[in-house]
Prior knowledge:
Elements: E1 4-7, E2 10-13, E3 18-24, E4 34-39, E5 46-51, E6 57-59, E7 67-72, E8 77-82, E9 91-97, E10 110-115
Parallel strand pairs: 2-10
Antiparallel strand pairs: 1-3, 3-8, 4-5, 4-9, 5-6, 7-8, 9-10
Amino acid sequence: QVQLVESGGGLVQAGGSLRLSCAASGSIFSINTMGWYRQAPGKQRELVAHVTRGGRTVYADSVKGRFTISRDNAENTVYLRMNSLKPEDTAVYYCNLAPWLEPLSWGQGTQVTVSS
């Protein structure tokens, strides 16, 4: 069973930066589009960005120009670089397959808290 392990979250002031990592076991990672999602308290989980196997990226409007998603297929790892963080970016961040694919079991996520 493929496992997803997210890391890199933390507490940061508005305007700061963080880099999240998601390590996946198994070869399924390298052949599929991967996404970063987030879920804020009381809200539904939303897609933040996704990256294809070849490196093509798409972003939600709310993070466009501030976040950068990337992947290392050899290491089965996907990253999310977050700059110019805002309090509204506060959420638990998860990685998984793109939303049009059957999701893998969700990991525990990594908490990002942005203070104003």
